[in-house]
Known about the structure:
- This protein is mainly alpha-helical.
- It has one domain (3-153): Globins (Globin-like), CATH 1.10.490.10.
- It has 9 helices and no strands.
- Helix content is 65%, strand content 0%.
- 40% of the residues are buried.
- The chain is globular and about 40 Å long.
- The chain has helices spanning 3-18, 25-33, 39-43, 46-61, 75-92, 104-108, 115-131, 136-147, 150-153.
- Helix 1 packs across helix 4, helix 1 (3-18) runs parallel beside helix 5 (75-92) and helix 4 crosses helix 5.
Amino acid sequence: MNRKTAIKTIVLSLALFFTGGCASNSAAQSAGGQSGASLYKRLGGYDAIAAVSDDFIARLATDKQLSRFLVGVSADSQKRLRQLVVDQFCQATGGPCLYIGRPMKTVHAGLGITESDWQLTVKHLVASLDKFKVPDKEKQEFLALASSLKPDIVEK
């Protein structure tokens, strides 16, 4: 797989799995309220979320099982999808971003995403969080937000 195809795979796979509206901002803020700071702030803010997102996307790009979701995506669309993912993670964790993507059910309808696809994607997300040494409490909160999306993503 060449670099351009790998990047397309990453961006599209991430968008397919995580665009469409994570748990609400208020839910993320209430989870963060336990320690006084939002999950967004405890994760390190926008730049930290963007770094985790970029690493996560890079992991998905090289995964053969998930690359089947790749359909030709222009360079401009790749950038937009990446930004949607960052904005979604930012908003879901209580940050100041506004996610403007479509609902999860709409984005994933008909893709045939399996439990195996889901588990593999979560594995990549955990690896990215671990790479950046996200503390266990924050990692678990972030994964809980992602897991709330599963019913609208996994079809089989």
